[in-house]
Amino acid sequence: MAGRHFEDFVQGMKSTLGPIAVTEPVLIEFARKYDPQPIHVDPVAAGKGPFGGLIASGWHTASLVMRVLVDSYLPRDAQLASPGIDELRWLRPVRPGDSLGVTVTVLEARRSQSKPDRGLVRTGIEAVNQNGDIVMSLIAMNLFRCRREAE
Amino acid sequence: MAGRHFEDFVQGMKSTLGPIAVTEPVLIEFARKYDPQPIHVDPVAAGKGPFGGLIASGWHTASLVMRVLVDSYLPRDAQLASPGIDELRWLRPVRPGDSLGVTVTVLEARRSQSKPDRGLVRTGIEAVNQNGDIVMSLIAMNLFRCRREAE
User: Fold this and answer.
1) Cβ distance of A88 and B88 shorter than 8 Å
2) Is A129 domain-assigned?
3) What is the rounded average pLDDT of the residues B132-150?
4) Does B52 touch chain A (CB under 8 A)?
5) Interchain contact A79–B (C-beta under 8 A)
6) Do you find a cis peptide bond into A25, omega within 30 degrees of 0?
7) Do A36 and B84 touch (CB under 8 A)?
8) Is residue B150 a part of any domain in this protein?
9) Could you tell me which residues come within 8 angstroms of residue B117 by beta carbon, excluding any fewer than 6 positions away?
10) Minimal CB count within 10 Å: which of A73, A101, A132, B101?
């Protein structure tokens, strides 16, 4: 989002993003490159497996959610590199044909003590399928530039 | 790895995998699809940014490491779905031309109490660049089938 800065992220703020359409060709294309296990790339083998069909690589689900965050949530010009992610959980399978919504909640927003031009935001993120099931959750850490330096 | 089961993962076991060659076309291709921030897709804009050039999306680095794990570490037939990841950290930038090694350490391996056909393995994973710098670290949880059920 153009114009957003650290000050625009306030504890308790909730947003809903998406939907993300999960298609079989895209699911298989990602998995062939990055996670070529039969359950992600081979519909016949996956059909005989524990989920009765193809499921998305967990890294693909995370990457699809990242795309939505870039397109419609993260600051376009004030985003610094992310230090990392905590408690990434793949809770239910993501399947071809699924439609995922993404809910985003600001858990904590605090200015850096040492660098007054930025703040750290911790964000709870959940991906939810068309049946209302949470398929993935994670806590993201992001550093955003401040609109105005602390005085 | 064909034939590997839960019993083959023992606390303290270390492995070194890779190398992974990071190339600019692949870095940009991933980022255009999943993380199209200027620092990942626009060499000119990234050159003026804090890292002085393009860096890989953190999700791309994680996905590249996953590919190496699938190719040369995880059990081919005994791997069940992963519950998730803890403490994923992007510690230093990954740049075009980098060559990443992956070090893998079994932190904990315990049989399931409720399902005697499987066990949970917690694994510390580090990606290290050609200068010896750790660029990413994470703790993975995996469920693997046992070769023999607990008695």
Assistant:
1) yes
2) yes
3) 92
4) no
5) yes
6) no
7) no
8) no
9) B145, B146, B149
10) A132
